Amino acid sequence: MEASKEIVRAIVPETTPALEVASSFDELGLAAPILAAVKEMGYVIPTPIQQQAIPLVLAGRDLMAQAQTGTGKTAAFVLPLLQKMVPHANASASPARHPVRALVLTPTRELAIQVHESVVGYNKHLALRSTVVFGGVDMKAQLADLRGGVEILVATPGRLLDHANSRGVLLSQVQFLVLDEADRMLDMGFLPDLKRILDFLPTKRQTLLFSATFDDNIVGLARSFLQNPLKVEVAKRNTSADNVEQLVHKVKEENKLDALVQVVNSRDIAQVLVFTRTKVCADKVGHRLQKRGIKAAIIHGDKAQVERLAALEGFKQGKVQYLVATDIAARGLDIVELPCVVNYELPYAPEDYVHRIGRTGRAGASGLAVSLCAPDEERLLAGIERFIKRDLKATPLPETAPPPVRAIATSIMPATVSSETKGPFSQRFGRTRAEPVCALLLPPANQVEPTPTVATPA
Ligand SMILES: Nc1ncnc2c1ncn2[C@@H]1O[C@H](COP(=O)(O)OP(=O)(O)OP(=O)(O)O)[C@@H](O)[C@H]1O
Ligand SMILES: [Mg+2]
Q1: What local confidence, expressed as pLDDT, does residue 279 receive?
Q2: Cβ(362) – ligand 1 distance below 6 Å
Q3: Which of the listed residues 28, 30, 51, 73 should we mutate to test ligand 1's pocket, taking the one with most ligand atoms within 8 A of CB?
Q4: Residue at which a domain ends, from 233, 260, 280
Q5: Domain shared by 48 and 181, yes or no
Q6: Fewer Cβ atoms within 10 A, N terminus or C terminus of the chain?
Q7: Largest Cα span, the chain
Q8: Are 256 and 218 in the same domain?
Q9: ∠318-319-321 over CA atoms, to 5°?
Q10: Pocket of ligand 1, candidates 71, 419, 437: which has the most ligand atoms within 8 Å of its Cβ, to mutate?
Q11: Is 70 part of any domain?
């Protein structure tokens, strides 16, 4: 324990505000091929969670890391893991030379695909192999990839267990385990699968938990999976993203569809992600919007995987204006410069509110989150306010057209500062909206048309 305190003091001075520990990626001890990939993504400065987590992961520590939505947690675990695996990169054709060394688990298929795309991007100049496995699609192609050998495996728990149980993948050499959206992965829905997966893994490994939210139960439970972990918190626990404007409109249930369209039209909102609590409601809202001639798509867990991916892809490429979703789309998804999220129905779990609205206002952009609150949802609203420790005052629905809301990339530092000292998101090139994100949806190649800082022992 004493040694762990020393590491924290040496690397993350406990009282230093996040931006004052700002360093360049060059100072983080990453190899040249990783730095080249980061540069090509357009990243100039590491975000606070990257500044804090990367050195600790490189130092071999187990972590429970919390930072607001859209602040670069993916790179905060992928970059140091790649660095740790650099000595294992090899071009051998033998699968035995490519055992799974890093396992990243996510709660949804779409997020697994996205995290794997990030791995591919950051791994671009290294010879490490990676793949992604998730349910709802044929296992055979996944099996062929796994049999060929991969160092980095991104997976959803159910499908990973299918492969592990049928010996399609060996997990006995895993050195690094990451739970992205860790609080979700440790809740009742995933815990049994997770425990079974842990039985396949060596006990001696480095385990990293990342999320924008952690509740006390999860913190307690997580300890049993971690060894002498450090807690890294950027901003206060469970805070919603800073740059998302949050509005509440009190609307009767039967008037919600009109209110939704009114919000979008009056503010000239180019694209909106609309959350409902149930699949039935998502279908109902989506179909009603379509009947009005609005370009709307629907994504929820009862849709075929190919439909889910097509809906998300169409939205990411700007082909549909409204994506109506259940909480399946609440966690982790990075939709470039999405200007607005609407809670058509408030979520039962207050942490879902934080994740839902975190689909906008990412990577330094500004965003708008509008909640349509019916009289019987007042209790849920109060729970959310308690959770985020903030009052969400209700305002009347917009009647006249206020200024348009678009996601405009903003620096978290003043516009006048020199490029060396600008915030991490001041120059962001990365993926553009038109770029397809999911390789699975691509047609064949010839048809193809981005507070306070505390690190403490947990
Ligand atoms: N240092 C950086 N500079 C500029 N952009 C960055 C940097 N790091 C990450 N990004 C971009 O920020 C966006 C959000 O990153 P990411 O999806 O990792 O956020 P997150 O913290 O995991 O959010 P969530 O809690 O919603 O999962 C991505 O588009 C990513 O490419
Ligand atoms: Mg994430």
Answers
A1: 98
A2: yes
A3: 73
A4: 233
A5: yes
A6: N
A7: 66
A8: no
A9: 75
A10: 71
A11: yes
Rounded to whole angstroms, what are the CA distances from 115 to 11, 107, 110, 120, 201? Answer: 27, 11, 9, 9, 21
Task: Please indicate, yes or no, whether residues 160 and 88 belong to a single structural domain of this protein.
Answer: yes
> What's the pLDDT at 436?
38
* Overall size of the chain counted in residues: 458
pLDDT per position as a tens digit, 12-60: 333 333 334 547 999 999 999 999 999 999 999 999 999 999 999 999 9
- Indicate which CATH number applies to the domain containing 341: 3.40.50.300
**Eight-class DSSP state of 453:** E
Residue nearest to atom 13 of ligand 1 (CA): 363
390 Cα–ligand 2 center, Å: 23
Q: Which residues surround ligand 2, an ion (CB under 5 A)?
A: 73, 332
User: What is the number of other CB atoms lying within 10 angstroms of the CB of residue 257?
Assistant: 17
Which residues span the domain enclosing 339? 244-388
Task: Give 16: exposed, middle or buried? Use CB within 10 Å, 0-12, 13-18, 19+.
Answer: middle
In a domain, 438, yes or no: no
372, 388, 404 - which closes a domain? 388
- Same-domain check for residues 257 and 221: no
Output the CA 107–ligand 1 centroid distance in Å. Answer: 18
**From atom 12 of ligand 1, which residue's Cα is the shortest distance away?**
363
Q: Residue 290: its pLDDT value, please?
A: 98
Kindly give the parts of the chain with pLDDT less than 70: 1-22, 400-458
Looking at the structure, tell me whether residues 215 and 339 fall in a common domain.
Answer: no
**Overall number of domains in the chain:** 2
